[in-house]
Structure formats: structure tokens, C-alpha cells
Amino acid sequence: MTTTEETEELRRTVRRFLDQRSTEAEVRRLMEDETGYDPAVWKQMAEQIGLQGLAIPEEFGGSGFSYNELRVVFEEMGRALLTAPFFATVALAANALIECGDDDAKKAYLPGIASGETIATLALSEERGGWDDKAVTLQASGSGSDWTLTGGKRFVPDAHVADLILVAARTADGISLFAVEKGAAGLSTEVELTMDLTRKLARVTLDSTPAQLIGTQGQAWNGLRRALRFAAVALAAEQVGGAQKVLDMTVQYSKERFQFGRPLGSFQALKHKMADMLVDIESAKSAAYDAARAVADGDADVELSASVAKAFCSETYFRTAAQGLQLHGGIGFTWEHPIHLYFKRAKSSEFLLGSPVYHRDLVGQALGI
Amino acid sequence: MTTTEETEELRRTVRRFLDQRSTEAEVRRLMEDETGYDPAVWKQMAEQIGLQGLAIPEEFGGSGFSYNELRVVFEEMGRALLTAPFFATVALAANALIECGDDDAKKAYLPGIASGETIATLALSEERGGWDDKAVTLQASGSGSDWTLTGGKRFVPDAHVADLILVAARTADGISLFAVEKGAAGLSTEVELTMDLTRKLARVTLDSTPAQLIGTQGQAWNGLRRALRFAAVALAAEQVGGAQKVLDMTVQYSKERFQFGRPLGSFQALKHKMADMLVDIESAKSAAYDAARAVADGDADVELSASVAKAFCSETYFRTAAQGLQLHGGIGFTWEHPIHLYFKRAKSSEFLLGSPVYHRDLVGQALGI
Amino acid sequence: MTATATNQDADTELVIAKTEQLLRDYPPATTDRREFLSAQFDAGLAWVHFPKGKGGLELPRSLQHEVYVRLEEAGAPNGQMGNQLGYSMGAPTVLAWGDEQQHERYLRPIFLGDERWCQLFSEPGAGSDLAAVATRAVKDGDDWIMNGQKVWNSMASISDIGMLIARTDPEVPKHQGLTYFVIDMHAPGVEVRPLRQMTGEAEFNEVYLTDVRVPDAARLGAISAGWKVSMATLMNERVMFASEGMDKGPVETALDLYRERDHHEPELRTRMIDMWIKGRVLTLSNQRAAANRAAGTPGPEGSTGKIGYAELQQKGYELCLDLLGDESLLYDSYEMHEFTLESLKERPTKIDPRRRFLRSRANSIEGGSSEIMHNILAERVLGLPPEHRVDKDVPFSQVPRG
Amino acid sequence: MTATATNQDADTELVIAKTEQLLRDYPPATTDRREFLSAQFDAGLAWVHFPKGKGGLELPRSLQHEVYVRLEEAGAPNGQMGNQLGYSMGAPTVLAWGDEQQHERYLRPIFLGDERWCQLFSEPGAGSDLAAVATRAVKDGDDWIMNGQKVWNSMASISDIGMLIARTDPEVPKHQGLTYFVIDMHAPGVEVRPLRQMTGEAEFNEVYLTDVRVPDAARLGAISAGWKVSMATLMNERVMFASEGMDKGPVETALDLYRERDHHEPELRTRMIDMWIKGRVLTLSNQRAAANRAAGTPGPEGSTGKIGYAELQQKGYELCLDLLGDESLLYDSYEMHEFTLESLKERPTKIDPRRRFLRSRANSIEGGSSEIMHNILAERVLGLPPEHRVDKDVPFSQVPRG
Known about the structure:
The complex is a heterotetramer, with two copies of chain A and two copies of chain C.
Chain A: H1 4-21, H2 24-32, H3 39-47, H4 67-80, H5 86-98, H6 103-115, E1 120-123, E2 140-143, E3 146-157, E4 164-171, E5 174-181, E6 187-191, E7 201-214, H7 221-256, E8 258-259, E9 262-263, H8 268-297, H9 302-328, H10 339-351, H11 356-366
Parallel strand pairs in A: 1-4
Antiparallel strand pairs in A: 2-3, 3-7, 4-5, 5-7, 6-7, 8-9
Helix pairs in contact in A: 1-4, 4-7, 4-8, 5-6, 5-7, 7-8, 7-9, 7-10, 8-9, 9-10, 9-11
Chain C: H1 6-25, H2 33-42, H3 64-73, H4 84-97, H5 100-112, E1 117-120, E2 136-140, E3 143-154, E4 161-167, E5 178-184, E6 190-195, E7 204-215, E8 219-220, H6 226-243, H7 250-260, H8 266-294, H9 301-324, H10 341-345, H11 353-359, H12 370-381
Parallel strand pairs in C: 1-4
Antiparallel strand pairs in C: 2-3, 3-7, 4-5, 5-8, 6-7
């Protein structure tokens, strides 16, 4: 376990980088840009601070740090609304590979992710959405090492720029995981218009597309489910970072904005609302940090911790963003003010990887009720 | 339909009466008294203002007014925390008789209720509680006009002072309603210790107790269910009256109590909380008044209106009482201050006749979801 | 239990008779829009509570409803359509504060749709604190010269007349130095810019005023009486907000979505029921408020409606999104649409719930924020002590702003 | 990834070693309670963060935990038991503000349980506004004469010493005229009356002071320094409140009730899960707060704990009642119990959830109401402007009260 100082040093480094490379102007530029990220920044992230490989094991080209460090990176990215395929690559694809139980696949793909050469993602949901095994209906054809995929996937983060798409599909014995590489025959991707323009989601269409089986046929779900939960912990950290930023903006605004000859922040009703936001965010931090610790420590009930964090932090972020917008008054409702970007990120990240309603249900199952 | 002025005149009359006869000192005296009501006040209510018979049809000795008037009476009684078997007699027993479809029973019992001679109640719940047909398991023995009852009933308002207990029991064809009179063989009652000491609830034990069948054997449930819903509307009106009183007390206190050299009521956070209480109570009034109107008009969906009112007003009253207690600070937590009496009435009346959870479920069924 | 309101019955009969007479004399199918509306104005059926000769009959406002029900049934033109702000807010203000010439000048054109009106109150520095308006109007002979910036002006780009408050005296406390004008939106120096909102479209505008020359005849009420005059406008705005849009609202939308889908987590059923109850109770409250207003005994349920409306919209569309599921990750279009005369006419019946979800965030801000409404309820209804005011007795020019 | 806190490790080892030494030298099974505690005090294991010779070792406070874990395992007596207020609030205050004689006089008797302490701060007119204390202390030779009324004094009926703030100068602003005393609860003129609460029992007392004579030697800190001194006491109170009672709390009670019953409306499952999550997150927050305090980087999660605790208790026991169903219509006993030495010892493990439900209403009032905690978070953590203060620079005698 690292000391607090080391973690905070990492935070300062990442924040400094993002302050310069993920400015509001840059975020807005990428929102309008279909590609949705800046390759130069992507390269710097990998080469200058090694973010993509931070929590990838050293034997697969990473730095071997834990989720205790990685969550700080996601917190800062959430704070800066970083618009890049980092979540897709690191939270989804890298975790899916780490949990796939297939050393060849790890060796084949993780080093490229760690070095920043490979952008990757995970394709799970289909036409009706959903993030559990029932969401996967796409049927793979083939056997042994000879497989093709035909069908569609939706809500796939950054699939349109991915070099590697990990696809969950049905085979005889259950759910299997496949690797599909960019340019594969019959593969096409199409970006959909997202409410949150800072995270691109694409449709993936596969038409007899050759695919590489990862791990054992029919045995992928346990690993995938763990990877999805770990990704949810990363998302919870993002949410906490975004929520803290909204509170900071709101407190700042309420000190500078005068109404009735007084700063807004001197009105007790508003002060108490901001205090509630603070209580909410501090609680969310406790949930997110503990879930990250549980991933790092390999707790037996890590999936429960992940669901708690995803459910709690999702709602905290949304409540915070909604309240922050309200406290900004009219200006907060305009396109030109940044707070709506956080509001939309908050609402969208509620749904991504399963809504709070879904994760609460999982918690109930874990409690046996 | 009456004009607003007539209703308000009735309100003033009832309030004047209760201001004198149901003072806080009197309520506290009756809380500690197992009988739980003052027979002299009961007689005055019937003879001086005719409250018991207000909404009983004229042909059965009442004044033939509607629920539009009766709900005002319950509102005021809720406000004054009247400690008397009025709810049991008028809301439960009289409604059960009016809806029982048995003219002989009406003729036998309603005039006594209207004149104040008969205290009556309805025994439905049993050991496990509950307010629907599943709660009724007590099996009647007999046939024709010759029946006896053996078993227990619980949570029966004021059964220990009732001259007439209407008992729901199972017979061959379903649920039937029976009349059991005071002093009947094998009948005993025992007051339980209630959280809300202003409303007495008793256990009723029946041991081969002779009982008079009311209405058609096995056909009582529809009428009973309607009566329970109408009683719930009366309870909702009580809740609204109690909530308004709590708000009045709280506003008054916050104007008189100084902290930091200012009246409490000048602190914006507290002002907004009281404004929220107001919004809540005004909404509850809309629900309760409309449900009373629906009973008076005989709306086809009157049961839905009743469930809406019971669910909404229950929670409004509790929220209001909890917030009112909070705004009173330490003094509100003491036995000597009256606000805890409202708090306990609020919580208890949530459960009586079915909790908000139960009534919301009924609303869902009515919506077909 | 007998009704005693025989007067009321007679009034209702009169309004119905006059409406039917109007429809007989000017059959909608064969009568030109302006001609019909002009006749309606003359019959006193434009605003029945207005004085005779000024579009009204001096009868209770609640009876206007009887007119509209019958006109709509008969397919007659609607004098509010496309000019809601003029009809609902401009006209009552002109009537209350204008002189005879101004009544003559403005009321009929509003009703005939010859002049559309918009509202120019809010400013970047005057939101909840509306009286902090900084737009300056300086007397210059018989005219006033105006400079300043207004914001949140719906319809401004297609309006002819703007209801505006401006500061005519900065050296007195803020409420005292304001004056109310009805300005010509086509005058030189008036520039209207669309204001894009988080939904993508531009429902509102910003209005920049640069040396705009306004004749003194366009002043409504006395110099420095602007705050009182503006209250007449705002009172009518809140009535509008609290009652609008209840036809196909968030609850019905959610219920449709709920029924379209076959399975749901139990939590969603709970929330669906809860929301349905809240919606029903709000509707009942609005009905009660209307009935009490009609009976001349308005209660607080009038003021509580706006808070409840905003909350229902917001929570309701949040539920809609949860029912939509992952489709809520997407959006229909962020293209920037402006409000035009055409968009006004084709008033879309089905707006995407995700757009409504975003739009609902403004419901607790526009037309008096929920915080301001809470203050009003606490102070005016409950009689709690007013906020400590640092700007009350200080000249506006010396009040801290930011 | 290597730990750098080698100092910390050494400190921990020292504490453990000393504790084990104490247990060897004074085997709990054969050692008298007072003797053991006296030895523990001398070993510096009473309050490890206190100075040497005064019950401590000048080590981080967080290490006290190591002592208690081992003593409890070994069945040793507990020096806090029955005198929590003296141990947790009195001792740190005496240490911080008392002189050498007072350290000598008070610390050891607290730890040995020879003198039980209670707190006499709140008054009927000084609740949230604690500095509005009106109890008067007037100098009379070497003594002070006290008159006034205190309220919400737990343990007062069985205590020997009361921590009291009194007004010694009413002609200066309220925070400036207070002085702190540790008074003899057995002195003539001190009358303790039980204060019955809504649960039926009397957990607290009122204390009436009539011409109570207190020697100047019982004054803690300088004359007029009482406000600052009282802060030392209160800081420790909030730590107590935020961390207590998490063993068999409302969530576990609810889960037991949930599992005992076989069928439930789906809404109750939703709320059960939600409450369980809230409880878990609050526990995590308390752990994080403790870890940050131990690491010397306390964050706001310390101050947020009390708000969260109160809310969890209240909502949690509301859920318990819903799970109990109609049994919630009943109560176990409203008989008035007073707090006695006996009731202190037999600390009941299973209190009826309906009683806990009623008791929970005080959680958001006692020890700093949730409203006050919100002010603190807004002003001290978020740095928002303080409330407008009418009583700040005014002599206490002229501040409006009521």
C-alpha cells in the first residue's frame, strides 16, 4: 500500500497534465469531433506519465501499480472531463484481458495497451442495452481457433477508434470472449449521438468477421463480470472526481456572484445545500476509495464493494451536478457554461455499466434478500 | 355541495368545542387513563353539535351530511388530538354498517351511533396485523341466524369501551360480518400499550361468543373494503389537521425563540424547511379533500382516491411532525412538550388501516402495473 | 346544502350567451381571423374580467374559460395563440398601469396578434434579484436613451414590443429607481441574439440595447414606479407557469414507457407509483387553487404550485430516463434551433423525453427560482421574518454587485 | 510502494510492550480495579497522547486503541467505563487549560473512577446558541456565587464533578464574558432533576443552581476565557458522537427483521438495500476519517460523520418500524426510568426498535444539531461567508433573547 503522499504526488502530476491538455476549450473541440480524442495527448499520457500501463502487471509491459493509484487517475480524468478512449482501453479492455485467464492473449495485447499503441474496448451490450450476461445474445460460429462473428453490438465506448475490440458472444457452452482487430473483414463501426458528448459510444456491426477466441470457450463470463465490476470502480472514481469539481465550481461561483447586495454563498439555505453536497461527496469518496482498495487487495467480496460504489457514486454525481446547476441559476442552463457538461456526464455514467437500480439489485442478491 | 362558508362555519364550531374540551391537559389525562375518553364530552359532541350522526343518513337517525363536512370534523379532531372513540365509532363502525347492505342492521345500530348512545368499532386485524382480506382468518361457527365466534382480534380501536363490536370472520362462502354486543358471553377485551397513547387499541378475545350475522353470509368483503377505504379518508383528514397544527406550532415557536440574537424563524435554512412543510401540507390537503369529495360524490374510483390520500397524507404528517420536532430542538424531545404527541400520532396513523407502502401497492394495482 | 351563488350562475349564462351570439354573427368557417378577433374584442370576450370597451365585461376572470371551450369547439381563432406573453402578461399590465391612450394603443393589437410581445426584465446581474436591473434609461427631451443588456427573453427575436424595466435613478435604493417601458423591438440599437441552452436549441435570447431612443409615451406608470408595475406582469407569469403543460407531462410519458416494456426491477414500479401519486396530487392542488381563486379565497396552494411543478418535471423525466434504460445514453439532436414564427405554429406534440429531461432543469430556475419561491412562502404566507437586507436603504449605485 | 512510517512502527511497538508489561506486573485476575488502573495511569497507558507523568507517553492518540484491544482481551478493568464524559471530555480539557495543581487534582481520580464527571453547558435559552449561556457567576472573595439553570445533562444525577460555563461579565459580547468551572455536584444549592423524554425514560437531567459557592481554584483557564476552554470539551464530544453505537445499529436490526419475516412488498426490499448501502458507506467514511486523523491529515469526512449518523439512525429505525408492521402501533413501556449507577452497568444489549426509533429523533439535535453542523461545514470547510450576526459586537445584556 502506498502512503498518502505518494498518491497525492500522482494526483498532482495528473492534474497538472490535464489542466494543460484537457482544458474546457479542448474538451469542447473534441465533443464536436467525431474521433473524440487527440492522438498527441494520448501518446503523451503513455510516454510521459505512463497512465495507460499504470495498473497493468509488469510482466505484461505495465508498471504494476494497483487500483489504489489507478483510481486517482480516473478521479482526475473525471474532474477534467478528459475526452479520450482511456476508460474504454484501461477500465474495460485491459481489465477484461487481465481477468481472461489466457496468458497468450495477455502477452499479445496488454503491452500494446500499456505503451499507448493500442486503443481497445469491450463490446458487450446489444440492441436492447444491459450489462449482464442476458445482454449477450450474439452467436459465434466456428470451433477450435477458427471463429467468425455476425451481429451487432451497441453502446460500445470508443469502438470507432479502437485497434482492438473485445467482443462477448455466445458459443455452445456459454459466453466466450473474442478479439476482433481493426480492419477485420465485415467489421464496421458507427458513432451514435450521445447525450454526453465527451464520451463516444459506437455501434459495432460484424458480418462473418474473423475473431480470435480468448480463454476457454464458454467460460468467459466470470472473468468478464469481474472486469465489468472493476471498470465500474474506475467509473465510480471518475464520478467522484467530477462531483468534487462541480462542488468546487459551485462554491467558487457562490462566493463571486452577488444578489441582493450579498454573495450568493452567504444565504443560509444555499450554504446548507452546498454542505449537503459536501457530505454526499465525502461519502461517495469513501465508497469509491474502498472499492478501489478492495480491487487492489483482491477482497473476496470485491464485486459487492464495486456495486456499492457504482450505485452510490452514480447518484452522488447526479445529485451534485443537478444541485450545482440549480445554484448557478440561469447561466448554468446555457450551452456556454461548462456545468451542463458535468451534468450530462453524470447522467450518462449512471447508465454505463449498469444503473444504480441494477447495482442495488445486485447488492440485494449478495445480502440474500 | 356546500359552500365554503358553511364548511368553515362547521370548522369554527368544532374547533371552539375542542379548544375547550380537548385541551392538552385533558388529552394527557386521557392518555394515562385506560378508558381513554370522557363520557360527558362524548355526550356533548352528540347532543350539542351532532357530530356522531353528521354523515349518517337521515332515515337512520343522522343529519345526512356528506364526507365534505365530515372530513372537516376529522381534521379538527386530528388537530386537537381528540382522545375518544370517535374514529372507531364513526369512521370504522358506522361506515361498515352503511356499506353492509343490511337494512335491519342499519336500523338496529345506526340510530344509536348517531345519538351518541352507542360506541362501536370494527375488529378486522388478527395476531399478525394487516388490513386486507388475508388478515381475516377467524372462523365463525353456525348457520342461519345462529352463530358463534371463537378466536382473537388485535389492533381494534377502542374495543374495550365499545357497546358494539363488528367482527369480520370467515364462513363457508368467504368473509362475513358479525355484530357482537358488549357483555356477550365469552367476550373479553384488553387494552394494549400503544405508542400513540391518544388512540387506544385493544385485543378482543371471543370464546363461543354469540354473534349476529350482518348482511349475506360470505359476501361482506366488498362492503367492508369500501368502509375501510372511507375510514382511511377520515384518517387522512385527521392527518392533515394534525400536520397543520404542527406547522402552526413550529412557525409560532420559531418566531418566539431567539438564538444568536435573532428569532429562529429568521434563519433562511429553517424558513425554507417550514416552506417545504407548507408545500407538503397543502398538497396533502388537496389529496384528502378530493378523496372526501369522491366519497361524497360516490366516484367510481373512490377507492383509488382513498389510497392516494392515505398514502400521501400519512407521509406528509410524519415528515411534518419529524421536521417540526427537529425545529423545536431539545425541548421538542421532552415529554412535557406536546409535539411528541403529534409525532406518535403521525407514526401510528401511518400503520392504522394499512401503511403507505400497502396503499401505494394498491394504487399500482389500480394502474395495472 | 344548497348553492347560494345565483349571481355566479347569471354571469356564466351571460358569457355563454354572448359567446354563442359571436359565433352566430361571425361563423368561424367563413370569417377572417382578424375580423373574428376584433368582433370578439368588441363583444367583451377577449378578457372577460377587463372593463367594457376594453375587451371585457367586468366579470370574474374564471369565466374566460367558458369562452375558450366554446370557441375551440367551434374552430374559432384563438387570440392568445402565438402571443401568450402579450395576452397573459402584457395586457393586464397595460390595463392596470397604462392611461386611456395606452389602453387604446396596445390592447386591441395584442389580441388581434398585430403586435407580439416579449418580456425584457432579467439581466446577467439581475436574476433572482430582479430589482438589481442595471439597464440605464436617461431622459433626453421627450425621449429616453437606453443602454444595457437583457437576458432570458423568450420570443424576443419575433416580437414587436418588449416589456422592459430600466433604472432611471441609481442614487436611490434599488426598488425605487426603476421605470417600466414598452419599447419598440424594431427600434435602432435593439439587437437580439439567440442564447443557446444545454438542450442544444435556443429557446431564449439575449437583447442588447445600445443608445435606444424610446419616447416617453411608451412609459407605463410613473417614473420610478417600475417595480410596482413589473409586479403586475410577474404575478401573471407565475399563474402561467404553475398551470401550463399538464396535458402530456412526465407522469403520462413515464407510464407509457413503463407499459411498453415488459420487465422491470421492482424499484422502478415503486417509483412509477410514487410519481403517479405526486402527479395526481399536484393536479388536484392546481384545481383547488383555481377553485379558490375563482371563489375569491386564494390560499397558499397557488404559490406552492410552481415548486411542485418543477419538482414533478425533474423527478418525472429522471424516471422516464430510467425506464428508457441505456437509450438514455443517447440524444436526438444537439443542432441549434432557434425559435421562429414557424416553430411556434407547429408546436410539436411529442418531444423526446431525453430533451425534456434536460429542459426540466430550468423549471426550478425560470420565472422565480424554487429558492425564491421558498422565501416567498416563508415570508408572505407563514409570516416569518424577512432575510437580512444589506441593499434595502442604500442607493443602488453603492450596493455591492458581482 | 514501501511504507515509510518507521517511527510509527516503533511507537506502536513501545505501546504494545508497555501494555504487555502492565499485564504481567498486574495480572487482572488477581489485581484490584483501582490498583490496576493506578498502575496503568503510571505506565502512561491511560491516555497515551498525554504528557508523561500525567497518564500518557506523548505518543499519537490513535495508539490508545492498541492498549484497549489488549486490556479487553486480558479481561482488565476499563478506565473509561462509567465515566465516559470525564475520560473523553473532562481530562483533555483539564490537561489543555488547567494548571499543574489541577492536573494533579483531577486526572488520576477521573481515570480511577473515583470521580464521575458530567457536562453543564446547555441552558433553556442556550441550545444551538451555546454562547448565550445566562447562568451567572459573581465573584465573592475567593469564591464565586452561581445562579442559573442547566439542561440536557446526562449522568448529572450520579456525577461528582460538573464541567460548567457561566457568565462572569454580561457587559461584553457574549463569547467574551464566559468562564469555565469544574464544580462539585454535591455542593449546597445544586439540585438535579430528571428530565423525562419522549421515549418515556429520563436519560438527561436539569440542574438548578441556587447560590452555589464555588472556589476560584475550580476555575479552568482565565476569567473570561470560558468559550475557548469549552471548545476543548466540545471537540471531543463530536468525536464521541460520530463514532458511537455502530455495533448493532439500525441497519443490522432491520436486516434481522427483514429476514425473520417471509414476505414483503418490493418497496421494502428496495429500502432495505438502500439503507444497507448507506450504512456501509457511513462505516467506510468513519474508518476513512479515523485513518486520516491517525495520519495527521484530517479531512471534512470527520465533520460529516455526525450528520450521516443521525440520518442513518432515523431512517434506519423508520425502516425497522415498517418491517415490524402493525406491531409498530404498540410500545414496550412508557414507565419513567432514571439513569442510575446500576442501569449504567447493565447496559442493555437489545433495546426495542420502537424505543430506538423514538430515541433517534434526538440524534440530529444533541451534541450540535444537524443545522449547526451544516453551518460548520459551509463556513469552516467550504469557506462560505458566515451568517449575519446581530449579537457579535453587542454586550450580552443587550442581545435580544427569547
